[in-house]
Amino acid sequence: MGYDLERFVGYVNEGLLCCVCRDVLERPLQAPCEHAYCSACISSWLLHHHSCPEDRLPLDVGSLKPLYRYMRNDLNRLQIRCVNAGQGCEVICSLESLHTHEDECEFAFISCSNTGCPVQVERRGLEAHLSECNFRSRECPNGCGHTLLSVDQSQHNCVAELRAEVEMLRAEMLCKVEEVRREMESRLDSQRRHMVQKESQLKSEVEELKGQLSRVMCDMRALLGAERLRRQELAEAELEKRELLELLRDLQPTRNQPPADQASSDQHQGDLQSWELHAELSRHQQREAAALHASSLSLHSAQASHLSGPPPSPQLGEAARKGGTRSLTLDCIKRKSREVTVI
User: Fold this and answer.
1) Whole-angstrom Cα distance, residue 163 to residue 157?
2) C-alpha distance from residue 181 to each of 5, 12, 32, 54, 174 (Å)
3) Domain containing 251: what range?
4) How far apart are the C-alpha atoms of 33 and 51, rounded to whole Å?
5) Which of 37, 202, 244, 322 is most buried (CB neighbours < 10 A)?
6) CB under 8 Å to 330, separation ≥6 — which residues?
7) Higher pLDDT, 248 or 228
8) pLDDT over 50 (residue 310)
9) Of 82, 104, 126, which residue constitutes the final position of a domain?
10) In 3-state terms, what secondary structure has residue 8?
11) Are 38 and 25 a contacting pair, CB within 8 Å?
């Protein structure tokens, strides 16, 4: 609906009137046929018709556009009386500033700001009404902290109100405690299930570690036994080495031997040193004791036969001693070499 034509002061051009309600345009829109309408009027018209209400040409909402600017300027310059002129407002303003004035007009009726109050009063008398409104609220004068309405002040009982408030708070607290209890129980159940799973997993890992530890202990015992046997073998080999060295020192010729015997003795001593080197390399075997004892027995028998036999000639004796000693030494060295190769 447009503005009532009787509210305007002075002449109003007919082009500024709505073609539907015949009042002055309010939020105007224009059709392609250049007829102007109020926004609310043309929207209601097009719900039932699809043509211009003035010349019946086809029309729809999408073809509407704002009013020409010169027409809007003419419309805004129109002088209009306040809508509250009947209550005593004598203000006449331009149509452009009408809404600003009506929002601040002292003669406009407004609702009371107190909750529940149905009274509407003029803006200029609002303060007087609020001072005596039955729905105005204020704090209890007895200090209970409640906000009271004027109509309820005579029936207010501080003790009863506080008891009711405490009961309400207690009920709310119990509800919250119950919710927290349920939530905590659900969390504890989930944590308990998680702990049971972790416990079973840790038990399986502990059992696996125990099995690994037992296997490592068995391996350590086997290694210690092997190390003990190896030390025993080394001790036996060292003992036999000492016995052989003593035996070899017994077989060395005296210092007053002839030069030929001394040379053969030196060669025999070099052969024995090489054999001793091979014997040191092969002393890790358990069968070395028997071989060394056999070699020592053969050397003792050779010495006994050499001492008990008739005294040979110097050349034959020298050759015999040289050949016997070399043969014995070579046999021992070959035997030890074969043992070292097998190892």
Assistant:
1) 10
2) 72, 76, 71, 74, 10
3) 238-342
4) 11
5) 37
6) 271
7) 228
8) no
9) 104
10) strand
11) yes
